[in-house]
């Protein structure tokens, strides 16, 4: 039961490998107080458990049970070390176990292909000798070197590639049901299928069959990692799409309301002008000048050829006037006929909102926004520019919002890009010399 077989010494080795792999993914979780002490005691307890588990038999069922117990103990150790949800801790455990299993499978694949350490199954598991009593000392230094080189390379590659994906897609946001499904899949692949390869194959089995099973196991491990990182990314994309749809719906309602308000204001201003001319003698010169200046704001209403663009420009010009921002517009609104009014309102509203937010941070004498809309061959070419202060960081060609609440900000430019792509167009952003520039090209339908 406690014979000094290769498998007796392999279990703590496996436990250490597993914990190291899990810590690669758990390093960004919140640490509990006295983390170093907790980590030392937890790892020591897991290693001690690996020695304490008796080896009743060398078979698939009992081997699976041992590996499953050690995995559960490692997840419990993570829970002792890190202050986070159980779901996130299990995620790190599954990812770590799968990476460890990939490294182990790569070594076993090399072993069965070359006969490096025991032929069909390596001597690490003590299953190649009668009764499973192969001595661990029989594994030479060269085999250990190859073994750890494979683990170092696999762990380094996983840490480099997967840790970046964790930050990029916030993969720890996986749902509860998805986590249960992936956990069960991991147990089947990393534990049961691995144990089948170790103990169910006879020593005289055909190498090609074992090689194919190792390759199949590696592909399954790749599937687990894909699910771990792809499912949360899809959830994030679905949330973003849902937010964008909500924003667009609100923008459509806002456009209808704004259009009515602008028409009403223009009508009232028109009536006010007639009233002033008819009653001008009743007002002194200063009062007349002040009222005329107010009405001139609406006299200069934009007539671009796009009613939706006119509404946006009317609203944003008032905002710019209040914030001492110079707004320069050259726009052929008729070229936007390919787009719906709601999309025109949404796109230009977001463009000008972002521009105003950036420009108002600058000194008043350099606050300026420019907008140009024109036909360029078979395209509508839109260029908007504004000054900005500070440094802008990009990710996937899009600026990263500097606001703390990133969950509810940064959708403006994504909405603009989505609208452009809806009409087969493209959006490009350039930052140079303190000038932020959005360039959009939208193809026009060709005449038959």
Can you walk through the features of this model?
Mean pLDDT is 75; it is low at 127-138 and 404-409. This protein has 11 helices and 7 strands. It has helices at residues 6-26, 35-52, 60-81, 86-114, 141-169, 176-200, 207-279, 285-299, 307-322, 341-359, 411-422; strands spanning 326-331, 368-376, 379-387, 394-395, 398-399, 426-432, 435-443. It is an alpha+beta fold and 448 residues long. The protein starts with 5 loop residues before the first helix and ends in a 5-residue tail after the last strand. The longest helix has 73 residues, at 207-279.
Give the key terms.
448 residues, alpha+beta, five-stranded mixed β-sheet, two-stranded antiparallel sheet, elongated
Shape: elongated
Structural class: alpha+beta
Secondary-structure element series: HHHHHHHHHEHEEEEHEE
Number of strands: 7
Query: Which whole number gives the mean pLDDT?
Result: 75
Q: Which residues form runs of ≥5 with pLDDT under 50? A: 127-138, 404-409
CA radius of gyration is 33 Å
For the sheet with most strands, the description reads: 5 strands, mixed
**Distance between the first and last residues' Cα:** 85 Å
Number of contiguous helices: 11
Helical content (DSSP H or I, runs of 4+)? 55-70%
Within the largest sheet, what's the order of strands?
Answer: 1-2-3-7-6
* Range of strand content: 5-15%
């Amino acid at each position: 039961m406690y014979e000094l077989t290769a498998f007796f010494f392999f279990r703590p080795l496996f436990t250490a490998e597993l914990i190291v792999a899990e810590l690669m993914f758990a390093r960004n979780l919140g640490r509990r107080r006295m983390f170093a002490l907790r980590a030392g005691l937890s790892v020591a307890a897991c290693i001690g458990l690996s020695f304490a588990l008796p080896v009743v038999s060398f078979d698939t069922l009992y081997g699976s049970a041992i590996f499953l117990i050690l995995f559960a103990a490692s997840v419990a150790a993570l829970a002792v070390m890190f202050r986070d949800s159980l779901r996130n801790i299990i995620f790190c455990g599954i990812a770590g176990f799968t990476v460890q299993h990939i490294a182990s499978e790569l070594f076993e694949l090399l072993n069965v292909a070359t006969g490096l350490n025991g032929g069909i199954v390596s001597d690490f598991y003590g299953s190649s000798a009668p009764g499973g009593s192969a001595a661990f000392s029989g594994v030479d230094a060269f085999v250990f070197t190859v073994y750890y080189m494979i683990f170092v390379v696999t762990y380094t590659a996983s840490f480099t590639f997967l840790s970046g994906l964790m930050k990029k897609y916030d993969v720890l946001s996986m749902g509860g049901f998805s986590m249960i499904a992936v956990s069960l899949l991991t147990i089947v692949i990393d534990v049961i299928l691995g144990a089948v390869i170790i103990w169910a194959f006879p020593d005289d089995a055909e190498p090609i069959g074992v090689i194919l099973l190792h390759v199949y196991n590696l592909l399954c491990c790749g599937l687990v990692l894909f699910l771990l990182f792809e499912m949360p990314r899809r959830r994030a994309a679905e949330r973003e799409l849902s937010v964008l749809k909500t924003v667009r719906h609100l923008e459509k309602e806002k456009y209808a309301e704004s259009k009515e308000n602008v028409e009403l204001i223009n009508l009232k201003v028109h009536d006010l002008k007639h009233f002033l001319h008819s009653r001008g003698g009743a007002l002194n010169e200063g009062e007349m000048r002040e009222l005329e200046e107010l009405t001139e704001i609406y006299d200069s209403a934009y007539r671009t050829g796009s009613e939706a663009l006119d509404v946006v420009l009317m609203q944003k010009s008032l905002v710019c006037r209040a914030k001492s921002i110079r707004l320069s517009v050259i726009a052929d609104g008729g070229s936007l006929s390919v787009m719906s009014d709601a999309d025109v309102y949404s796109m230009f509203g977001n463009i000008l909102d972002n521009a105003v937010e950036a420009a108002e941070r600058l000194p008043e004498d350099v606050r300026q926004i420019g907008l140009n809309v024109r036909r360029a061959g078979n395209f509508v070419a839109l260029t908007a520019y504004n000054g900005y202060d500070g440094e802008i960081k990009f990710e996937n060609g899009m600026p990263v919002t500097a606001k703390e609440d990133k969950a509810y900000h940064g959708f403006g430019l994504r909405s603009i890009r989505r609208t452009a792509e809806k009409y087969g167009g493209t959006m490009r952003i350039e930052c140079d010399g303190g000038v932020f520039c959005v360039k959009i090209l939208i193809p026009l339908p060709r005449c038959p």
